[in-house]
Amino acid sequence: MKKQEYLDLYHQMVLIRRLEECAAELYQQDKIGGFLHLYIGQEAVSTGLISARQPQDRVITAYRDHGVAINTGIGAKEVIAELLGKATGTSKGKGGSMHMADVEKNFWGGHAIVGAHLPLAAGMALGDQYMGSDAATICMFGDGATNIGFFHEALNLSKVWNLPVLWVVENNQYGMGTSVARASAVGEIRQKADGYSIPNAIADGMDVLSVRKAAVKALKHVRSGKGPFFLEFTTYRYRGHSMGDPERYREKEEIAQWEQTDPIGIYQRYLIAEKIATRAELEEIEMQAEAEIMEAVEFAETSPEPAPEELYTDVYVQAG
Amino acid sequence: MAVKTVREAISEALWEEMERDEKVFILGEEVGVWGGTYAVTKGFYDHFGEKRVRDTPIAEAAIVGAGIGAALTGLRPVAELMTINFAFVAMDHIVNEAPKLHYMFGGQMSVPLVIRTVSGGGRQLGATHSQTPDVIFAHFPGLKVVAPATPADSKGLLKSAIRSEDPILFIENVTLYQTRGEVPDGEHLVPIGKSKVQRQGSDVTVVTYSKMLNVSLNAAEELAKDGIQAEVVDLRTLRPLDMEPVIESFVKTNRVVIVEEGWRSYGVGAEVAARLYEEAFDYIDAPIKRVAQAEVPLPYNRNLEQLAIPQVSSVVEAVQDVL
Ligand SMILES: Cc1ncc(C[n+]2csc(CCOP(=O)(O)OP(=O)(O)O)c2C)c(N)n1
Ligand SMILES: [Mg+2]
Questions:
Q1: Does residue B102 surpass a pLDDT of 80?
Q2: Chosen domain end from B183, B208, B227
Q3: Does residue B274 lie within any of the structural domains?
Q4: What angle is formed at CA B292 by the lines to CA B289 and CA B296, rounded to 5 degrees?
Q5: Which end of chain B has fewer CB atoms within 10 angstroms, the N or the C?
């Protein structure tokens, strides 16, 4: 890896962290409505993962999608504009926090029905296989989503049809307030892939370099025509499931414990210890991210609301 | 009588029925430790324990399916679907298993299951999370669909639903939980399948249910300022549909506006209008009007979403049109 690549990973994670902190504030100011699921704590997963993709690779995820959107190359401007429901947002203000997408960046969306996007991912991988493309489909989802039928149907199909799809579970220990132990028959989610004979691996989702390494390997497998691969990343969300979560299901000490391995903190220490970057260089990146977010908020706040006629557009491709 | 919110009324109904009958138990996502996504089952887990307040994985088909199975053995499950938007994941069990078993096996099996869920939009949750598809479920013979609006009806109907021998979809509305109203003390049961006049009037009949009852009542107050007296009939149950109070009112007013939160096409308005044509044709003095949601998947943007959902002004205008 070149120095700039290391720095880019740092930039992405810091940018996402700032963006999410800013989103929480905008929510408190009542500028964001609906549900808001923050990605704070999980930044390393999509950052490491998507840094390993090639442009032809598709990405699809669940509703906890702001960080994923940023990593696919969507600007903080478009993300925040969508959060504010503005016409300049990723989905013209029609989707909101849970439904961001940019097809040109090969980001096929945040999807809010738990597990429902997994069969879609299988279908996209089928499309690429059908047309003889070497693209892989990267499908991200939470631990909770592995208990719903969609998951099992999609994994099975991907193996039966040898589809080029990389299944990625972000195991952040909880689906809303229900721990993996209380909801899943197996503690390591990747064991479920064994049930479908899908090769799999587990890696530390708090360590962006481990994530990247695992992703590079997995994508190589998928791209070489060997069929699906399954990756589990161990991670943690520091904030509630969504804004307003009473968090009765976990202790403060547990959060504090996981904060010791804050993905940004450990990566920062690593970069300095390995003399890849100086503290000053990292601070510069942090300031730059801060400025990017300020500019994005300014952009979003001054962007127009969608016109009332927009209510009736996009219902069909061919209206009438 | 005491004044309570819809949330308190539903919670009380559940609590009392669980105290009364040990066979009543709850299963669903976040019903236990969390205390219910909308805090309806807050305190239940600590009081009744994990045997009777069962947190499930995110698996709606299994929630309803296992509810049906448990009901077949004689238990009285109350299955909770976090919102009605997730009911589609359990569609087979809701419409193709629960309502069929009693009939298909010649009356041998019964499914005393209540599925509680939450419908409605207006909270900027976007297209997949904001629907009011209540009417879809009312299409299926064998399933009863109850959708109360007031605290008293919420309590009385839920208690009746839990005691019923048939599968019932009990639809709450996300924006109604804070609604306050008087609830009778002690044993309070409201029969399933009975519509009710919630406001008397002689000029026009407004037929509605659930959240749109409040909107319609507010519209009636507006209209009263201009001397127009609207009679508001609350269907309370979508299947079996009780047309009697509707027709009684219509015979008097000869004018009707039907108000629902969901989409217009094939909706409650269509059904009620058709029944009026069939059963009260001679009394029709003006075109029947429907007020319903714009026929689009609901957008996230606040202004656009509000534009799509029926408002007090939409009802007022519709009434003025039929007068
Ligand atoms: C089919 C369905 N059921 C329930 C929900 C409500 N819900 C939204 S997120 C969530 C928890 C999902 O947990 P997980 O998959 O682990 O993802 P995380 O939130 O941890 O990122 C639930 C139950 C939903 N959106 N869709
Ligand atoms: Mg999770």
A1: yes
A2: B183
A3: yes
A4: 135
A5: N
**Range B22-25, long-range pairs (CB < 8 A, 24+ positions):** B23/B74, B23/B75, B23/B76, B24/B52, B24/B75, B24/B76, B24/B77, B24/B78, B24/B162, B25/B51, B25/B52, B25/B53, B25/B54, B25/B70, B25/B75, B25/B76, B25/B77, B25/B78
Size of interface A-B (CB pairs under 8 A): 124
The separation between CA A10 and the C-alpha centre of its own chain, rounded to angstroms, equals 16
Q: Are B128 and A120 in contact (CB under 8 A)?
A: no
Other beta carbons within 10 angstroms of residue A305's beta carbon come to 15
What would the two tokens of residue A17 be?
């962290």
CB B276 within 8 A of CB B197: no
Q: Note the ligand closest to the C-alpha atom of A234.
A: 2
Q: Which CATH fold would you assign to the domain A3-304? A: Rossmann fold (3.40.50)
Q: Look at residue B190 and tell me if it is in a domain.
A: no
* B152 and B268 assigned to the same domain: no
Nearest alpha carbon, ligand 1 atom 8: A114
CATH of the domain at B120: 3.40.50.970
> pLDDT for B119-156, tens place per residue?
999 999 999 999 999 999 999 999 999 999 999 999 99
Q: Is B34 touching A (CB cutoff 8 A)?
A: yes
**Are B132 and B82 within one domain?**
yes
Asked if A176 and A144 touch (Cβ cutoff 8 Å), the reply is: yes
B129 is catalytic: yes
Angle subtended at Cα A27 by Cα A25 and Cα A32, rounded to the nearest 5 degrees? 135
Domain stop point among B183, B213, B245: B183
Give the range of the structural domain holding residue B212, as residue numbers without chain letter. 196-322
Distance of CA A195 to the CA centre of its chain: 25
Closest CA to A145 of A122, A108, A113: A113
Is residue B285 a part of any domain in this protein? yes
Domain ranges of chain A: 3-304
Its ipTM equals: 0.96
On whether residue B191 sits in a domain, the answer given is no
Model confidence over A101-145: pLDDT tens digits? 999 999 999 999 999 999 999 999 999 999 999 999 999 999 999
In chain A, residues with a C-beta closer than 8 Å to the C-beta of B120 are: none
Instruction: Clarify whether B278 is annotated catalytic.
Output: no
Q: Using CA atoms, how far apart are residues B181 and B192, in angstroms rounded to an integer?
A: 20
